[in-house]
Amino acid sequence: MESNNLKKTDIIFGLCNCTSNKKYPVLAEVIQKTPNDIITEIIDSGLKGRGGAGFPTGLKWKFAAAGNNPEKYVICNADEGEPGTFKDREILLKVAGKVFAGMAICGYCINASKGYIYLRGEYKFMLPGLNKALLEFHEIIKELGYNFTIKILLGSGAYICGEETSLMESMEGKRGEPRNKPPFPVAEGFNNLPTVINNVETFVNVTMIQKYGVEEFKKLGTQDSRGSKVFSISGDTPNSGVYELELGMKLSDFVEEYGDGDTKAVQVGGASGFCVPRKKFDETIIGFEGVPTGGSMMLFNSSRSMYNVLSNYLDFFAEESCGQCTPCRVGCQQLVQGIKAVKKGVKDEEYLDTLLKLSESIKITAKCGLGQSVANSFFSIVTNFKEEMIY
Amino acid sequence: MINLKIDNIDVSVESGTTILNAAKKLNIKIPTLCYHPDLRIAGNCRICVVEQKGARTLTVSCATPVAEGMTIHTNTLKVRTARKHIIELLLSEHNSECTKCYKNGNCELQTIAAEYKITNENFIDLVPLHNYTIEHYSPSIIKDDSKCIRCQRCVRTCEELQSVSALCVAYKGDHMKISTFLEKSMLDVVCTNCGQCVNRCPVGALVEKNHIEEVWNAIYDPEKHVVVQTAPAVRVALGEDLDMEPGTIVTGKMISALKKLGIDSVLDTDFSADLTIMEEGTELLTRLKKALVDKDNTVALPMMTSCSPGWIKFIEHQFPELLPNLSTCKSPQQMFGALAKTYYAKKRNINPAKVVSISIMPCTAKKFEADRPEMRSSGYKDVDYVLTTRELAIMIKQAGIDFKTLSEEKFDSIMGTSTGAAVIFGASGGVMEAALRTVYELITGIEIPFENLNITPVRGMDGVKEASLKIEGTLPEWNFLEGVTVNTAIAHGLVNAKKVMKNVASGKANYHFIEIMACPGGCLGGGGQPIPTDSDIRMKRNRAIYQEDTGMKLRKSHENPEVIQIYNEFLEKPLSHKSHELLHTTYISRKN
Hints:
The complex is a heterodimer of chains A (391) and B (592). Chain A has 391 residues and is of the alpha/beta class.
């Protein structure tokens, strides 16, 4: 019952000879071009970061390339911690070579010789395999006469360390807490040196753009959301798993394909994302012009209590906030306790409006993306499922 | 220069200036809590947010540098709502029983809440949901987590200014708290009791362990003879807590006030500071002689000062291998204490058991020092109670004394006479200068060749200062020092002390004598001094100290008549048997 409008693709995981057969032919081709040419290509491709925030990748590289600091870094953010997101695990298990190649291309573009993969602590089981693949990669890169090494560092389980500046603090051996921005990592990142940090999938896209060309990449997706995206689909679906789909799809088409026929809501982008109710499926585009996602798509059917869903997310945030900034640390606790109080009737339903205003303040005052996005799920669930919050 | 607009006013500031400081230039006040001018920017309380045209979120003004063409609004509906929310959130997590708080009336959160007229309980009280603890095992500091707003000023102070890191952030989210290594008691960690955290805590989460009631009880007890000593740095700062400008010298008024409180004898730590110079100066010369004449290579050089109890605990923890380098001299407070219950009691014909010895100190570590087991050489606890400058101000207010209009009185005697060399103990470089004034004259017979005895190279606020002095024209007895260049170093703030110690430990440094004070600026920036303290206020106190020195008739410790007298009548000579018994001490390694 595949929908006509939903286009499955096979680019990220698809077999190509670009990194296989103990060779990285894509790298051999890449180093024939100038860094500037490659950056221009990435900018032209319209590729946006696949971690969720969607910053234009080429632009990020251009900023990092601009400084002539002798030491710069490339970091691959593999601290896949967003609830409901498990696509990077799949990518690293199946096509790690494409990730390494993307990192090397980045290193070539910005003139960095050191790359790091910050791997989620729970993915430690992948380490032997990845390190073995890295040995091969390092040999090949040496043969190409190019100086770039990749090292894998393990996270220790804090959600906040997926936030890029916390991740760098963690890499430096410090407590994982977001930094003030500016300065941005492209100017002062890891060890306070210029750093490009991209999601696992973003690096794969870079590799594939170099392999197939900008025009091929642009054939997929929309004006604002070029290319395809790997989704991790979970919840009330008969087809949970990892799928690669073209960006810019309608949520209704998605639900038709992956729902169980009784889908009441889809949480797009994990706990920090947006909850879309059934009545808005048709008008919701999955992409940067609509509702963006780092990959997580959670489907809920009518047997689910959206109060429980929200309560679960808020508990998660209250625990996983780093705790340094007031709005996020205390705000999350207030949201948790607040919806509980309304549900129990200790506070009347107007208190939800007080909490909505608070969530708006959290969104505009929190120090990092985590705090700023708490309001996303809170606002979208409370406004769309108000009755469920009260009764 | 960067041009921007704040609240529709054009302003031009240097590149790198924060929005907060640019606004300050226009006399626009933006509230802050986690910001402290002595510390690295944290940007975590978020109270200072402003609206920046074109930005998706509000902008945190303390952490954001200005940019060309920026348009900032500091008082929009959005800003006001957000700030109010932040205050309400902080209050919901904070034990707000203000009337029962030691910091009542001197609390930055209270002030901001009052400004924004937070009257209703908008949010749920989270305090009962947290398992907050009050930690009171430290002899100097009480840590009450229920008052903490997690601004991390204390953590930054401990790390950046003191390189101690006794306080740290533990856990995350709703459990995030300021804690210690493995959540041990403040008594059992590397805390030096310096109290710099207390001085920077905006609320009542970190306060000194106060001894106000104990002191009142001693005063009211007709059986007791209460003796007070006042440290040099107190007299240039006490006024700040009593509605006077920073840098006002209040020595005479302070003495008046203490007498009005009912103190039997108001004496001066400056007396024992002069005595310290005699003992420590002689000790230095003895060590130099052993090294240069006897060629004894076991003698520990450079010699280091031992006046600052925070510094002592720091070296005991972090550089115990250098303990032999410490002067064995007790601090002036403890020299005074030992003499109060021996020499003084004898001279005044008072039973030492009835003497209550109280010190007024700019310092919280002095409370710890007074409690050290070594500090009982009089046969009693040498110093019974230590009050900080702040605690004395509280007592003066409690007694209903109008401090500003008080007449000026003089210290009682004996042990109340001092020289300018003693008062400068309150500033970084002061002990060095006082020692040099005396030692130089002792070995050459002439005054140290600096105009007006002002040895300016050792003064000032540089974290580490170095000065060298070539000795010429020695008296026959000291001719082994002829032509010797004495190298000195002075550091204040333990982060600077650590730098110097690393150089000493690695053998890189060739100093003979080092002065270390635990606190920024020396005792004048002590943890027990009035709040707030910042570089501008420290500078004003510093100027007042040297002004006090210049105004003294006697400016060299060895000329203090009461010092001469005590050697004649009681101690015989520096480093005598009696001196060793009462005025010198030992140290312990605290490294495990």
